[in-house]
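Batch 3, record 17
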Amino acid sequence: SQTIHQWPATLVQPVGSPLSLECTVEGTSNPNLYWYRQAAGRGLQLLFYSIGIDQISSEVPQNLSASRPQDRQFILSSKKLLLSDSGFYLCAWSALRMKKKAFFGQGTRLTVV
Amino acid sequence: DQQVKQNSPSLSVQEGRISILNCDYTNSMFDYFLWYKKYPAEGPTFLISISSIKDKNEDGRFTVFLNKSAKHLSLHIVPSQPGDSAVYFCAASGTYNFNKFYFGSGTKLNVKP
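Prediction for the assembled complex:
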């Protein structure tokens, strides 16, 4: 069966510090991968989308970047965090043969102080 | 510009009654719609979906209705149970855009015992 792992679960970082959140998927190959953010009191905003290694599209202009160094690994990064980067970050994967469902990780609560 | 909208941020229902959650979308190219359930500090979990070729899909206590002409979908939960209390997100995707999933802002359902 397929599983998705996302870490860390919580993170408190000072303004101006770097960020690296990691997500890995097991049990499937060539998944579509996503990074979403849920800001306080808001919905899920799509940040990045990837259909393959080094194939990443950004949905919104922002202070963050994403990389996919391996087929089932998706990394969300920032060189210098802003207060507005605080939120709940979710990694997800999907595959067409799974009837187009997206499956989510447990999320990372990021607080920038 | 939000392509998927949930205009009711919260809904309170008595146990045993019907819960109706609504969702509207603007992009006529969307061809697949999903509902997710989310508890605090966790990732969303898939609940039920519907393809644009159908107008109804049922799974146990959960039924999703799709009105393509109105660009509207709804989730019915009958009977509602206290364990259904959570935030419900609707999402939409389209084959034309490589199945990116766009989410609404969520509706917080509270089922009172």
